[in-house]
Amino acid sequence: MNDFGQPTSITIPAKPEYVGIARLVIAAFAGLLGFDNEAVEDIKIAVSEVCTSAILQLHKEGRLENRSVEISAYVKNRDLVIDVGFATKEAASLEKTHTQLKERDLGMSVLTSIMDKVEIMKTRNNAVILRLSKRVPR
Fold first, then answer.
1. In this predicted model, what pLDDT tens digit does every residue of 6-35 receive, in sequence order?
2. Is residue 1 domain-resident?
3. How far, in Å, CA of 4 to CA of 9, rounded?
4. N or C: which end of the chain has fewer CB within 10 A?
């Protein structure tokens, strides 16, 4: 396997029409790592779900102008790690994001069934990171 430790990143406007771009970038990255077509499709679904959740959370906070979602993919300890992050104005956004993922149609149960690990974290500067991990095939 090549060394893909340096992140491949994209920042998209917090608008639903840009989620497809993030899906394509992450799908290409996963393909380079040797994931089969079915796994790449699963990864695309997961990326769509977390990007959409991030955009919905930002939408609930108010205007979306000048708001963005940052997506990065990298390999760490033989896992593909995908971080979807967004800056939030609300102190309780971590809990709201978790609740929102559970309530959505695909929700947390589907994410955990297609990805090996799903984490929701808050950074020191009140940003939220939705982290997806999946073991890279040998």
1. 889 999 999 999 999 999 999 999 999 999
2. no
3. 12
4. C
Mean pLDDT of the 80-99 span = 74
Residue 11 CA to residue 34 CA, distance in Å, equals: 24
Structure tokens at 90: 């609300």
Which range is most confident: 23-27, 58-62, 120-124?
23-27
Tokens of 79: 């896992």
- Comparing CA positions, the residue from 100, 98, 94, 115 lying closest to residue 46 is 115
Q: How far apart are CA 6 and CA 25, in angstroms?
A: 15
Token duo for residue 39: 């796994």
Give a yes or no: residue 116 inside a domain: yes
